[in-house]
């Protein structure tokens, strides 16, 4: 079986034949080919996207829940509270109401963008041309005394499921069907694995979702704590309705349930991921009893290293879903746990080797 057999999609293509002329005559060498889909989780697919039906449904539900939160806050909760009716009888939103609308929509938008990035970003799948890290070179003193006279080649551990090279910090995902570097878990809500490639986007999605739940819950409490009874100029107390129509109470109850339920869930996720970041141990690592050591701190492995080379100092791009976590060239291979032939080029490139690239259709 060819090494590229586990990554094929659909029916295998007929293997092309390459004729090589040698001294003893002509020899036929068969090469394996693979299909390259537009979206998928294969090593040669153009765009990363898990096509699992359950994951896609959960992702659509996530977008629908955020859209409902924006609708309930900006069209149901705020207008009767912070709207001002003019002489023409048309209600206009006050400046404070516009401020709350902009802030809440911005938080929800950042949560959706972070979710999309976490779903469509390669979580750290091991490429087919990955190789074990080379062993450390012996020092001159060790060479002189002959301690390392016979060099020991690096061992190459293969995954028993996908039959590809499996680095030390990689774990196989049965849904993505790939080995993922620093895999924490497969999250159905983001329809992807959470690994070293998209851990930052996952954290931002959880953080902005928690922030939107807290924000909407604070608006709900403030609104209904003040709308029923407002003291006038004297001692009289005037009462007015909190909503324009009684039927809107269903929308408010839905917003309350959504804010409480997902606010508690995302808060627990934030505290759980806090320990994962600073200990550098994922949930799978803890189950298997593995220990991790490396050149970078846990925060730097998740959010990358800044332009000044300091990964532990707080930066503004930590909160941006548009900034990708990057690692310096001298520690990239150590963080990933493997090296690629193209990584030895100058400048570093992310393209595939010609041997692998020529097998793609």
UniProtKB/TrEMBL annotation:
It catalyses: L-cysteinyl-[protein] + hexadecanoyl-CoA = S-hexadecanoyl-L-cysteinyl-[protein] + CoA. Keywords: Acyltransferase, Membrane, Transferase, Transmembrane, Transmembrane helix. It is found in: Membrane. The chain crosses the membrane at residues 56-78, 98-118, 201-221, 249-271. Its main location: membrane. It is a multi-pass membrane protein. One of its GO terms (cellular component) is membrane. The keyword Ribosomal protein does not apply. Pfam families: DHHC. Residues 155-289 form the Palmitoyltransferase DHHC domain. Signal peptide: none annotated. GO terms for molecular function: protein-cysteine S-palmitoyltransferase activity. Its EC number is 2.3.1.225. PROSITE patterns: DHHC (PS50216). The DHHC domain is required for palmitoyltransferase activity. Belongs to the DHHC palmitoyltransferase family. This is Palmitoyltransferase. The lineage of its organism: Eukaryota, Sar, Stramenopiles, Ochrophyta, Bacillariophyta.
């Amino acid at each position: 079986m060819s090494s590229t057999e586990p990554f094929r999609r659909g029916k295998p293509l007929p293997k092309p034949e390459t004729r090589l002329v040698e001294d003893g005559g002509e020899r036929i060498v068969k090469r394996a080919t693979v299909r390259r889909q537009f979206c998928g989780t294969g090593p040669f697919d153009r765009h990363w996207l898990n096509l699992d039906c359950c994951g896609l449904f959960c992702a659509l539900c996530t977008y629908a829940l955020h859209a409902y939160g924006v609708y309930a806050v900006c069209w149901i909760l705020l207008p009767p509270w912070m709207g001002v009716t003019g002489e023409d009888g048309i209600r206009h939103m006050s400046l404070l109401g516009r401020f709350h609308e902009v802030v809440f929509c911005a938080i929800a938008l950042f949560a959706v963008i972070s979710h999309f990035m976490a779903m469509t970003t390669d979580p750290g799948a091991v490429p087919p041309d990955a190789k074990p890290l080379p062993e450390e070179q012996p020092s001159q003193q060790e060479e002189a005394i002959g301690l390392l006279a016979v060099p020991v080649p690096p061992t190459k551990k293969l995954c028993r499921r996908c039959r590809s090279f499996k680095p030390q910090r990689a774990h196989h995902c049965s849904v993505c069907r790939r080995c993922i570097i620093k895999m924490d878990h497969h999250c159905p809500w983001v329809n992807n694995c959470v690994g070293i490639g998209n851990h930052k986007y996952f954290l931002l999605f959880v953080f902005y979702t928690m922030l939107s739940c807290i924000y909407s819950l604070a608006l709900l409490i403030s609104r209904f704590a003040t709308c029923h009874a407002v003291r006038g100029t004297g001692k009289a107390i005037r009462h007015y309705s909190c909503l324009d129509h009684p039927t809107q109470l269903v929308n408010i109850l839905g917003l309350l349930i959504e804010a409480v339920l997902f606010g508690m869930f995302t808060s627990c996720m934030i505290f759980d991921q806090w320990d994962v970041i600073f200990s550098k141990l994922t949930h799978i690592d803890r189950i298997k009893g593995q220990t991790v050591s490396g050149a970078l701190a846990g925060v730097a492995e998740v959010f990358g290293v800044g332009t000044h080379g300091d990964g532990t100092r707080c930066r503004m791009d930590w909160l941006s879903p548009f900034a990708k976590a990057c690692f310096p060239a001298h520690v990239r291979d150590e963080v990933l746990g493997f090296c690629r032939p193209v990584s030895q080029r100058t400048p570093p490139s992310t393209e595939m080797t010609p041997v692998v690239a020529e097998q793609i259709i």
